[in-house]
Structures are given as structure tokens and as C-alpha cells.
């Protein structure tokens, strides 16, 4: 599993206060890495810095190497980079549009307009997110009518419609019930065949269930980074 993303001497400041320093973290292709640690330890700051979601509110220095390119440079095409490094948020946030259009929207923006292409990509995305069977007969219904678990899987389908390389997820199950959470975990385990996944979770059992690697954050530092089995057998 080659390394596809790594950070070098990454510092993140909100104003003058340093929220995070991480010298050297590496993410391997088609693996799930869990970012765990107490609230306020910098997990979300780290995740959001990886695809420059923090640009407007924070100062981020150091390198974020994505397949040989430092994507923390000012001349990087952030819009294109985010197509390769997609994000799913804590709260499901479907658009007030039909299920179909939630996914087709970004595809159309990127120039996919033929109905057949859109149909295929919408179906493939919903299948990969394990939502197709439940919604295939109601694609024109509003996405706002979906349950929390379905809405979150729709957000995953939306994020993967553009075929990213890396999927970042910020506590994607924290608003879900146990059944939806377990379905989401199964979906992530399948998605890792196609994508490299980095997931923030406050749930240690979840990290143990789904991830190959775990980074343990505390007070703005990664205290431990190792295979998940090591982290959980040598506390
Ligand atoms: P976690 O995801 O582990 O809960 P965060 O990354 O949200 O941690 O927070 C790390 C630190 O950065 C905390 O001290 C938090 O208060 C601070 N922080 C997070 N977001 C902001 C922000 N937008 N402005 C200022 N400080 C922030
Ligand atoms: P399956 O697992 O159903 O066989 P794959 O996901 O392996 O399908 O992909 C088959 C082909 O479709 C590959 O060439 C891949 O590049 C492409 N593909 C995968 N996901 C998408 C998507 N969301 N949108 C468009 N094309 C995709």
C-alpha cells in the first residue's frame, strides 16, 4: 500500500494560538486511518487542513504532500484538489433537492451533462454508498425526507460521485443511531477497495472495528501513530 498523502512539519494556528503541530504522518492507499483523541485535541483541525477547508479561518504552514505534490502551496488549484480529496461532514447535509440532483449537481458543474452519463454515475455512486436499493424508485423525491443514516450515505454518494482518491470523514456517525452506524461502517469497509479513507471518530470501538491505522491526538499533537491492532493491544 503506497503512501498517497503525508504531512511534513504541519502547524495550524487560529490567530496567534497554535492548535496543531504534526511533524510527519503518512496515509497509505486503500487503507482506513482513524484519528482519535479527546475533544479539542486537534483531530478536526488536522482533517480540515488536509484539503484546505481551514484556509479562511486558520494559518496552515508546512507541507501536505499528495502524490508528490505539496497541495499546501498558494498556486494549487484548490477546487481541483478537492475533487481528489473529498470531505463528508459530521451532520448529514444533503441539499434541498431531489436525491438524484444531490449527486448530479456536482457532476453537472464538472461538465457531465448527458443524461445517460449522469444516470450511470448517480447509480454507481448510490450503489457504492449502499443506498441504491432503498432509493432507486424514489430518486426524484426530496433528499430532506431521508432518515439520518440514509442522508449520511447520500452525502457519501455525493462525495464519491466525482471519484475522489481520498475520502475525509469528520465523525460521520456521531448523529446516527446504532443500526445506521453499523451500516455506515460496513459501507466504509467496502469503500476502501476504491478509496483511501481518513476518519475522525470519538468512538474507540469504531476505530478498532474499521481502521488499519490509528493516530491518537492529544493537545494538538499526535501522541501515537501505529497499526490499529498495536494501538489497541498496547494501551
Ligand atoms: P477536535 O476535532 O479534536 O475536537 P479541534 O480541531 O476542533 O479538535 O480543536 C482543536 C483546538 O483548536 C481546540 O483548542 C479548539 O478550541 C481550537 N479551534 C478549533 N476550531 C477553531 C476556530 N474556528 N477558531 C479558533 N479556535 C479553534
Ligand atoms: P464495480 O465495483 O461496480 O465493478 P468500480 O467501482 O470498480 O465498479 O468501477 C468500475 C469502473 O467505473 C472503473 O473504471 C471506475 O474508474 C469507474 N467508476 C467507479 N466509480 C465511479 C463513479 N462514482 N463515477 C464514475 N465512474 C466510476
Automatic annotation (TrEMBL):
<feature type="domain" description="ABC transporter">
    <location>
        <begin position="5"/>
        <end position="235"/>
    </location>
</feature>
<dbReference type="Pfam" id="PF00005">
    <property type="entry name" value="ABC_tran"/>
</dbReference>
<dbReference type="InterPro" id="IPR003439">
    <property type="entry name" value="ABC_transporter-like_ATP-bd"/>
</dbReference>
<keyword id="KW-0472">Membrane</keyword>
<protein>
    <submittedName>
        <fullName>Phosphate import ATP-binding protein PstB 1</fullName>
    </submittedName>
</protein>
<keyword id="KW-0067">ATP-binding</keyword>
<dbReference type="InterPro" id="IPR027417">
    <property type="entry name" value="P-loop_NTPase"/>
</dbReference>
<keyword id="KW-0547">Nucleotide-binding</keyword>
<dbReference type="GO" id="GO:0005524">
    <property type="term" value="F:ATP binding"/>
</dbReference>
<keyword id="KW-1278">Translocase</keyword>
<dbReference type="InterPro" id="IPR003593">
    <property type="entry name" value="AAA+_ATPase"/>
</dbReference>
<keyword id="KW-0592">Phosphate transport</keyword>
<dbReference type="InterPro" id="IPR005670">
    <property type="entry name" value="PstB-like"/>
</dbReference>
<keyword id="KW-0813">Transport</keyword>
<dbReference type="InterPro" id="IPR017871">
    <property type="entry name" value="ABC_transporter-like_CS"/>
</dbReference>
<keyword id="KW-1003">Cell membrane</keyword>
